[in-house]
Amino acid sequence: MTELQVDTDPAEVGLDPARLERLDRRLARFVDEGRLPGFLVTVSRAGRLAHVGRYGHRDVERGLPVEPGTRWRIYSMTKPVTSVAAMSLYEEGAFQLTDPISTWLPEFADTRVYVAGSAQKPVTAPLMEPIRVWHLLSHTAGLTYGFHHAHPVDAMYRAAGFEWGSPPGADSAEVCRQWAAIPLVFQPGSEWNYGVSTDVLGRLVEVLAGKPLDEVFAERVLGPLGMTETSFGLRPDDDPDSLARLYAAVPATTGTTFAPLDAMGEAALSKPAFLSGGGGLVSTAADYLRFVECLRRGGSHDGGRVLGSRTVAHMVRNHLPGNQDLETFGRPLFAETPLRGVGFGLGFSMVLDPARYGVVSSVGDYSWGGAASTAFYVDPIEDLTVTFYTQLLPSSTLPIRNFLRQLVNQALV
After folding, report:
1. Which of 61, 107, 220, 357 lies 20 to 30 angstroms, CA to CA, from 351?
2. Is residue 127 a part of any domain in this protein?
């Protein structure tokens, strides 16, 4: 098992240890109030792990505590891994960011675009421009999620079996064929909408590399970075008890509480048919920290390089037209980040305007999170990486991402 060992005194890297304890205290209060089952948080600066906090349970009903080796469903924190794998192919000249994806996924050549009508009788129009690779990376392709419940096309996804999962037995090729037959929410490149774009990107990566996504990840990301505890579902030799139990938020008179969500959670107990580039990985805190540190260091970690530094820099700048934020260019719905003052690049959101964002943060701090309330961010100005793990759906239940920034930044001295 990869160790999760603090390797520096916080004061050595400009963090006040007493102030850092406020982070654990505030997060522990969520647990004590019955609003979170448990958590694990890491804070690193200049590549040194300065703080690990953990509290509560990975399985409340069985009394199993959160441990350094606990495995977490990271859901959409899979997306940056897929984006990095895709950009490693880009660095080899496998595609241009402006290439139409129908070159390799011909089912998307004739996808229609929703204009009016209901989910049962939509009025559609042809594509005015093709879906391009950068549209997938930046969530501007017009694809969506069934769980949004915000648009007739979302209802069409749910009717096809795509809400919080996919139809049983369907692999990545099959789900892409089904999505291509459903209209887009808007013309590619005209808006931002969080959806299955990174799953389609995962399929594109499979076609370009000529092998399944788990093999591509092993070869291009996980292997070079020494990430031995990250996989699509648990592997046969993994301890099932190491996987944290999944919980759903339940509204209560005393504030939000939670209940086990085993039917959905059990999907991660084994490798699925559909290797979801948008949300399929389980990982440990130590493993995913290697990935986040690789980003902070410009594409390499511990001797393994996966991307060039210029490529990483390109991915973490705002790609929305006119440097707009998600609130003005996006749609007002669930995402893994607040939308005000925040832009989106190739697989990451980034803070454009801390004042508009409303949280003490740095311009250019980039991040993403997962549906079960996991999160990470990298602050290039302060040379910080922060990761957070729990298992509570949906991630909009508690404003944990804002608390992370305000409580880590107040500890910087």
Report:
1. 220
2. yes
The predicted-structure confidence for 189-211, as pLDDT tens digits, reads as follows 999 999 999 999 999 999 999 99
DSSP 324: -
CA 1 to chain centre: 23
At residue 223, the pLDDT reads 98
Residues of the chain with pLDDT under 50: none
Question: Per the domain annotation, does 145 fall within a domain?
Answer: yes
Structural domain count of the chain? 1
Name the token pair of 67: 């441990």
Please confirm whether the linkage preceding 68 is cis (ω < 30° from 0).
no
Structure tokens at 291: 């990935």
pTM of the predicted model, to two decimals? 0.97
**349 close to 376: Cβ distance less than 8 angstroms:** no
In a domain, 30, yes or no: no
Placement of tokens 């011909």 in the chain: 106
Q: E strand or H helix at 179, and its extent?
A: helix 172-180
- By C-alpha distance, which of 403, 391, 393, 389 is closest to 334? 393
Instruction: Kindly give, in sequence order, each residue whose CB lies less than 8 Å from that of residue 157, ignoring residues fewer than 6 positions away.
Output: 144, 145, 146, 163, 179, 182
The amino acid present at 157, given as its one-letter code, is: Y
Q: Calculate the CA dihedral of residues 14, 17, 19, 25 and round it to 10 degrees.
A: 140
Structural domain of residue 146, as residue ranges? 94-213
What is the maximum alpha-carbon separation in the chain? 63
Identify whether the C-beta of residue 194 lies closer than 8 Å to the C-beta of residue 185: no
Residue with tokens 């093709």: 130
